[in-house]
C-alpha cells in the first residue's frame, strides 16, 4: 500500500470484528509513528495501549460510569469551540446525519441516538484501545504534533491492514481514564482510539464523511 492509498482508505470505523490483533504489529506501529514531525523534537505524545483483560475491565467500568454520569465529567479542554460557526458547524452536522441515516435512526429518536453514541465507550467492539495524553504545560504547537503522530499511526495501521477510529469523546471522562491508566496530574488526556479489523457488515461503516472541495479551503498564489 502506498501513502496515497493509505490516506484514501483511512476512515473512522465504527464497527469492528472481534478478531485479535497481533501485539507485535501494534508495538511496531506505535514505535514507527514516532517519526512524525515535532517542533523542536519535543515529542509531546504519551501513548497508552490497552487490550485483553484490562480492556474488558475498562469497558465494564464505562458501562457503569455512563449510567452514573451520562453527561460526562468536568473536562480539561473544549473539544469544539463554544461558538462553532459555519461552515464548520455544517460539516459537523452533516457527518452526524450521514452516520445516523446509515444506521436508520431518525433525528427525533433522541434516546436511540444516545444509546448508539454509548458504543463509543465500548470502542465499537474493537480488540485494542489507544489513549494519547500530553503535558499540561504544552501549547497549541505541541497539540498539532499530537495530531501528526496520530495521523502517522493511523496510516501505518492501514499499511498493516488494520482500521481505527480516533475518539475525542473520551475527553468527557478524563477522571475515569486518568484513574484507570494512572495518568499523572501533570498530564491531560487528549483522545482515545479504537483499533482493529473492520466489520464490513456493520451498517455504521456504510457512512463515509465527506470532505470540502479544494476551492473551499485552499488558495494558490503564483502556482
Describe the model.
By secondary structure, the protein is an alpha+beta fold. The chain contains 8 helices and 4 strands. The protein has helices at residues 3-9, 23-32, 52-68, 88-103, 110-117, 140-159, 174-181, 214-217, and strands at 46-51, 128-135, 163-167, 187-196. It has a 4-stranded antiparallel sheet with strand order 1-2-4-3, with helices on both faces. Helix 2 (23-32) packs across helix 6 (140-159). The longest helix is centred in the C-terminal third of the chain and has 20 residues, at 140-159. It is globular and about 55 Å long. The model has no long low-confidence stretch (mean pLDDT 96).
Total helical segments:
8
Kindly state the percentage of residues in helix.
40-55%
Number of strands: 4
Q: Mind telling me the C-alpha Rg?
A: 18 Å
pLDDT averaged over residues:
96
Instruction: Let me know the largest β-sheet.
Output: 4 strands, antiparallel
Strand order of the largest sheet: 1-2-4-3
| Spatial shape | globular
Instruction: List the uncertain runs.
Output: none
Beta-strand proportion: 5-15%
Distance between the termini: 30 Å
Topology at a glance:
Blueprint: H1 3-9, H2 23-32, E1 46-51, H3 52-68, H4 88-103, H5 110-117, E2 128-135, H6 140-159, E3 163-167, H7 174-181, E4 187-196, H8 214-217
What attributes does this structure have?
single chain, 223 residues, 13% strand, alpha+beta
Give a quick precis of the structure.
This protein has about 220 residues and is of the alpha+beta class. It contains eight helices and four strands; from the N terminus they run ααβαααβαβαβα.
Amino acid at each position: 500500500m502506498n501513502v496515497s492509498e493509505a490516506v484514501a482508505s483511512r476512515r473512522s470505523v465504527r464497527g469492528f470484528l472481534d478478531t485479535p490483533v497481533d501485539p507485535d504489529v501494534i508495538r511496531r506501529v506505535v514505535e514507527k509513528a514516532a517519526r512524525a514531525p515535532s517542533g523542536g523534537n519535543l515529542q509531546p505524545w504519551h501513548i497508552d495501549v490497552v487490550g485483553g483483560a484490562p480492556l474488558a475491565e475498562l469497558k465494564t467500568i464505562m458501562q457503569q460510569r455512563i449510567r452514573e454520569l451520562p453527561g460526562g465529567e468536568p473536562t480539561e479542554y473544549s473539544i469544539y469551540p463554544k461558538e462553532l460557526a459555519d461552515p464548520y458547524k455544517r460539516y459537523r452536522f452533516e457527518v452526524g446525519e450521514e452516520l445516523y441515516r446509515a444506521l436508520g435512526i431518525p433525528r427525533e429518536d433522541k434516546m436511540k441516538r444516545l444509546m448508539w453514541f454509548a458504543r463509543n465507550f465500548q470502542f465499537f467492539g474493537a480488540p485494542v484501545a489507544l489513549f494519547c495524553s500530553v503535558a499540561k504545560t504544552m501549547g497549541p504547537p505541541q497539540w498539532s504534533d499530537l495530531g501528526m503522530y496520530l495521523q502517522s499511526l493511523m496510516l501505518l495501521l492501514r499499511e498493516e491492514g488494520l482500521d481505527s477510529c480516533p475518539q475525542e469523546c473520551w475527553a468527557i471522562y478524563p477522571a475515569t481514564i486518568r484513574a484507570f491508566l494512572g495518568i499523572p496530574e501533570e498530564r491531560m488526556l487528549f483522545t482515545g482510539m479504537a483499533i482493529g479489523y473492520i466489520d464490513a457488515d456493520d451498517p455504521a461503516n456504510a457512512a463515509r464523511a465527506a470532505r470540502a472541495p479544494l476551492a473551499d479551503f485552499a488558495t494558490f498564489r503564483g502556482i
